[in-house]
Fold this protein.
Amino acid sequence: MPQFTFHGDPYRVLGLPVDASGAAIKRRWRELAREHHPDRAADPAEALRLTKQMARINAAYDVLRDPARRARADATRQRHEGTSPGPVFDATAGPEPSGPPRPRPTRPVTARFDTSPVFHRRNATLGRAGVTLDGHRPLGNRERRAAQEPLRSSDPCGPVLRRRNPGRSPRLPSLEEARGTVLEFGKFRGSTLGEVEVQEPTYIDWIARTITRDHALVIRARVIRDDMDARGVQRRVRPSAPGFGGGRAG
C-alpha cells in the first residue's frame, strides 16, 4: 500500500515523548482509539469531528510504529526543533493546526446610504408637478441635416447621393468600353473583361449573374454576355459560389 505523507508532529498528536517505546506507543494508541472512536458520538456532527480526529491519530500511529518512518520523522524534528522533546500535545484537543496563518479580521462595512430622494411612487411623473412630458414635433429637413453627424476630414463633402431619373434609362457602355474594364478581384485580377472573354467566357456569365457589389461592372459584363449570345458562343453553365449574391439571374 502507498504511504501517505504525514504533516505535523506524530508525538504531539498522540501525546507522547520522543523517547517512548513501541509498547507505550501502541498502548497510547489504543487508549485514544477507545476514547475518540466515532461510534461514541451522539449526533452526526460529533461523529464527523471524531472521524477526522481518529484519522489523524491513526496516521500518527502508522508513522511511529514503522521504524523507518519514525527515524525519518525524528530526523526532521531534530533539523527543525533540535533534540529537545518539546511540550506534550493533548490529542483530545483535535488535530494540530497547519498551513499559513489566518488573515487578520477586518472591520465590516456598515455604512448606510440614504436613497429616499430618488424614490418615486408607481406611475409617478418625472416632470413638473401634475404635468407630463411634452411631446416633440417631427424634425424638418433643415433640422434633420443639422442633427446629422458632422462631416469628417476623410469625407469633407459628405456622402454622394445618386438619384435616378425614372423618365430616362441609364446609358449602356459600348462593347469596346465593356471589354476594356479591368478586374480588381478574383483569379483574373488585373486582366480586362475582353481578355477574360477569350480565355474563359463562363467567367463573364458568372459576373453578370452573381456579383452585386459593383453595379457598373455587372452592366459591362452583361453587355459582353449579350454580344456572346448574339454571336452564338457556346459555353457551359458555371455554378454560383456561396456568398456571392445568392446566384441571382440577371
Q: What stands out?
A: The radius of gyration is 46 Å.
